[in-house]
Amino acid sequence: MSLEDLENAGVLLPREEWGQRDLTTTANKPALLLIGLGALVAATLMYVGDGRTLTWIGCGLYLTTLYGFLWLSVRAVRRQLARRRRSRRPG
Fold this sequence. Notes:
Structural class: mainly alpha
Oligomer: single chain
Largest sheet: none
Radius of gyration: 18 Å
């Protein structure tokens, strides 16, 4: 996607507002940290498993953390869009 596509979709701020606001995330930071730690544990299990049972447990955990990261990111973008829509509404 291009920058124009992202602006038209409402994901990015308009260019005239770039650099005007604080860069804060709407993602749940503790959940993001937990997902990151889970991915590290999954990678360790896959390495230590050497193709045996622990490898497959690590693969399953990795896929779970990947899905969790995707879900968390989509929720954060939706929350950000909702916040922008509320702030643009005439009072």
